[in-house]
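Protein of interest.
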Amino acid sequence: RLYQIPFEMPDCEGESGTRTLHLIGDFSAPAEFFVTLGVFCFLYAMVALVLYLRFHSLYSENKKLPMADFCVTVCFTFFWLVAAAAWGKGLSDVKAATRPSSLIAAMAVCQGEEVVCDVGTTPAMGLANISVVR
């Protein structure tokens, strides 16, 4: 929800005034889908672990239970792939929206011919990239 993040920009009209701008974009849906699916996968893994360890005889005697377990695992695997792809796309959109050159281009004060705008530091996205790889 980048639109909730404000940042200050010098006002072109006044010497000491500033204007509050907000980033553009809401990329929370892919992240929420990724996290929700991860929680559901964890909960299912805990239930399956209890079933395998505590009720092993029930699992081995009933022929439908292993097939149902297999089908649920295949569904979770497919949705995990979809969620990882969605989160990867969401992350690339967040990177594009927060790219320093994009932010400078959106600031009216930086559009003057004699004005030099500097971004300072580039945002660190290493941990976000790792979250997509996992």
Observations:
- The chain has a mean pLDDT of 79.
- The first helix runs from residue 28 to 54.
- Residues 27-110 form one domain.
